[in-house]
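hey so i finally got around to running both of the ones u sent me last week. sorry it took forever, my laptop kept dying halfway thru and i had to restart like 3 times lol. anyway pasting them below in the order u listed, first the sequence line then the structure token line for each. didnt double check formatting much so if smth looks off just lmk and ill redo it

first one:
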Amino acid sequence: MIYPIVLYGSPVLKKVAAPIDSSYPELSQLIDDMFKTMYKADGVGLAAPQIGLSIRVFVVDVSALGKEMPECAGFKKVFINPEILSSEGDLVAREEGCLSLPGISETVRRPESITIRYFDGQWNEHVETIHGFAARAVQHEYDHIDGHVFVDKISLIRKQMIASKLSALSKGKVTCRYKTRS
């Protein structure tokens, strides 16, 4: 199933998502559907709040970028109940976009590396350090389960400059090639 992407302004994007346990109904199907939805929209990550579910689950697949960015090679993962334990390195500025904010991209500063604990789709626990663009993608999706979007991390001046675009999005006024909902 391909879900519609929830747009900026929806209350679910501002809520801190709830953890789940292994009894969550049809989790395997949900994970498959999240990947399908993400691919249909040409994204590299998708968090459950972006499809209207306030649970601590997100998917990331940056493996297509592996030739240009070695840290992305083979990086296709499911993160359930993740917790960022630490961040390391310089803050790196890079342009970001978001499926919930189509047509908007801004420069965001994020730590170069993170160490994260999470469960995969089979409920195996992992603790790993992730670097570069893969770390950026994980941090972006992690923000979603904590009730934040990337424009929360830009300067007030930049946010004022895109205020009319944000207002239009929150009213559902958007042309997009994938299905959305307010």
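and the second one:
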Amino acid sequence: MDLSIILVNINERGFLRQCLRGIERAHVKLDYEVLVVDNGSHDGSVEMLKENFPSIPLIASPTNEGLSVAFNKAVRATQGKYILYINYDIAIFEGVLEKLVHYIDANPKIGILAPKLLNPDKSVQTSCYRFQSPIIPVLRRTPLGKFPRAQRYLRQYLMLDWNHDTVNTVDWILGAAMLIRRTALEQVGGMDERFFLYYEDTDLCRQMWEHGWQVVYYAPAQLIHFHQRTSAASPGLVSIFKWHTRIHIMSGFKYFLKYYRQPLPNRPHANP
């Protein structure tokens, strides 16, 4: 089988239905499968899936076990040569998945291939980044980020100095849409289940580089992402009281502790 498409859902019935309908309308010309993991939804998502998509395999967890646990469960239950993990708020277009699979198939050094993400208004969405130091989350969440020097750091981290219409290796990519080579994923051991939510994508990309695999941003393939940035919905210290923000901060601590005093992996930034 060429491709396994994995979605992890929690209480997003409408987005999930729209995404699955989009996959159907894309008429994907690959040997592929779709699997959904539901992490304890209470909005009728499971019932909607059983009624509207009875042929799609479903892993229904009674509680929210976290994104990494759900993803690893789905990987073990699928068999595609490549794994496409997408958020439920991604819109799929005809021909895009074939383009991604053909490119990674032709470039055996790539462990993760990421499409170019667009906002609903078709503007470019920031979805590839340089590895961050602990100061970056502080600058992004506090007024310190408004100072000119901080703005330079943030622009570099967000790769705003780079042409997003090209194909190139990058440090890491947003986990909203990523095509993963199964053999590479098996080599790195899957997603680190210590990350309940957030930083699991940063960590997975770093592990790919650590094991000699490339992470590549592929602009010719484009998807729409209805990005919500839940953890950043409230500004400043007010956001500390939000559940998503607390999880984001905890995951950040885990990430920086995991790589404390470890050098960054070798990652030559040249066209693959």
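quick thing i noticed on the 2nd:
The two ends are 25 Å apart (CA to CA).
anyway thats it, ttyl
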